[in-house]
C-alpha cells in the first residue's frame, strides 16, 4: 500500500522509526513551527511516495521530524486540496502515511472564515464537529465509519487547559477555491456552521477510519463573506497567520508537550 511505502520512506529519511504525533500545518500556520523547535530532519514532500507538491501559496511542501519532550512529531508543512485538482485519495495520503508511520494523534490546522458572531480575526478556535460539504469522501466501499466524537473531546479539553480562552466551533469544509457568497454564508450559518474553509474534513474522516485521534484548530483569518462587507483575499489569510504565529506556536507546543 502506498501509505506504508511512504511511511517506510519517512522512517528512512528521518532516521526515526515511529512518529507518535503528526501535525498538518495549513494556510497561515507555517510560521507557528518556529516555536516548536528545530527539526532533526526535513524531507521535501515530493520526494516521498504518493505525495504531491502543494501549490497553494503559503504551503511549503516539506515534512519535518521534530522531537518535543519524549515524542517524535511529524510536521507536515502544507497540504493538498481538492481545489488544486487532487482527488480525495491524494488529499488524505499524507495523513494516511503519517498514521502508517506511527501517528496515533493527528493535529489538523487550517485557516478559516469566521461565521459565528463574536469570533475575532487572529483567534484560534477548536473544531468541535464538521460539516463535510465537499460532496466527496476519502473512503471507498462499505466502510461505515463512526464520526461521533470524531474531534477528540479529551484532546480539546487538553488544549483548553493550555489556553482557557479557546472557544470551539463547527467547521464547514467546502471545495473552493472561490470564497463563499454572502448568501452561502447565511445558509452555512443556518445549517450550523461557525467556521468555513476549504480543507481538513476529508483528512479527519480518513484519520478516524484509520483509528487515529484527531485534534483540529482553525485560525480565524477573516470574517466570512458578507459579515462585514469587506472583500476576501488569500494575502489577508497569510498575513493574519503571520501575525498570530507566536500564539499558535505556543499552543501547538503546549499540546505536543502534553499528549
Ligand atoms: N472561506 C473559505 N475558506 C477560507 C476562508 C473563508 O472565508 N478564510 C480562510 N479560508
Automatic annotation (TrEMBL):
Origin: domain of life: Bacteria
Pfam families reported for this sequence: PNP_UDP_1
Catalytically driven reaction(s): a purine 2'-deoxy-D-ribonucleoside + phosphate = a purine nucleobase + 2-deoxy-alpha-D-ribose 1-phosphate
Pathway: Purine metabolism; purine nucleoside salvage
Residues that coordinate or bind phosphate: 27, 59, 79-81, 111, 199
Keywords tagged on the record: Glycosyltransferase, Transferase
InterPro entries: Nucleoside_phosphorylase_d (IPR000845), Nucleoside_phosphorylase_sf (IPR035994), PUNP (IPR011269), Purine_phosphorylase (IPR011268)
Domain Nucleoside phosphorylase residues, every copy: 20-256
Keyword Isomerase: no
GO biological process: one example: nucleoside metabolic process
Family of the protein in this entry: Belongs to the PNP/MTAP phosphorylase family.
NCBIfam families on file: PNPH-PUNA-XAPA, PRK08202.1, PUNP
Subunit structure of this chain's protein: Homotrimer.
PANTHER family named among the record's database cross-references: METHYLTHIOADENOSINE/PURINE NUCLEOSIDE PHOSPHORYLASE (PTHR11904), PURINE NUCLEOSIDE PHOSPHORYLASE-RELATED (PTHR11904:SF9)
Protein name: Purine-nucleoside phosphorylase
Organism from which the protein derives: Nocardia gamkensis
Amino acid at each position: 500500500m502506498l501509505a506504508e511505502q511512504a511511511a517506510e520512506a519517512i522512517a528512512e529519511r528521518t532516521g526515526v522509526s515511529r512518529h507518535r504525533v503528526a501535525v498538518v500545518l495549513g494556510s497561515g500556520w507555517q510560521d507557528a513551527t518556529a516555536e516548536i523547535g528545530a527539526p532533526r530532519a526535513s524531507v521535501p514532500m515530493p520526494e516521498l511516495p504518493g505525495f504531491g507538491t502543494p501549490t497553494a501559496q503559503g504551503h511549503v511542501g516539506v515534512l519535518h521530524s521534530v522531537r518535543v519532550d519524549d515524542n517524535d512529531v511529524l510536521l507536515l508543512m502544507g497540504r493538498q486540496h481538492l481545489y488544486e485538482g487532487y482527488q480525495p485519495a491524494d488529499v488524505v495520503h499524507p495523513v494516511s502515511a503519517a498514521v502508517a508511520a506511527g501517528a496515533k494523534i493527528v493535529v489538523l490546522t487550517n485557516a478559516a472564515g469566521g461565521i459565528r458572531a463574536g469570533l475575532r480575526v487572529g483567534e484560534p478556535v477548536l473544531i468541535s464537529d464538521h460539516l463535510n460539504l465537499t460532496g466527496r469522501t476519502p473512503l471507498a466501499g462499505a466502510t461505515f465509519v463512526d464520526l461521533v466524537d470524531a474531534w477528540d473531546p479529551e484532546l480539546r479539553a487538553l488544549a483548553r487547559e493550555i489556553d482557557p480562552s479557546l472557544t470551539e466551533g463547527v467547521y464547514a469544509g467546502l471545495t473552493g477555491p472561490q470564497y463563499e457568497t454572502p448568501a452561502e454564508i447565511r445558509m452555512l450559518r443556518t445549517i450550523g456552521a461557525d467556521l468555513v474553509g476549504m480543507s481538513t474534513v476529508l483528512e479527519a474522516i480518513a484519520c478516524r477510519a484509520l483509528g487515529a485521534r484527531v485534534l483540529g484548530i482553525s485560525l480565524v483569518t477573516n470574517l466570512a463573506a458578507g459579515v462585514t462587507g469587506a472583500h476576501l483575499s488569500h494575502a489577508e489569510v497569510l498575513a493574519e497567520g503571520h501575525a498570530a504565529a507566536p500564539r499558535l506556536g505556543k499552543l501547538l507546543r503546549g499540546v505536543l508537550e502534553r499528549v
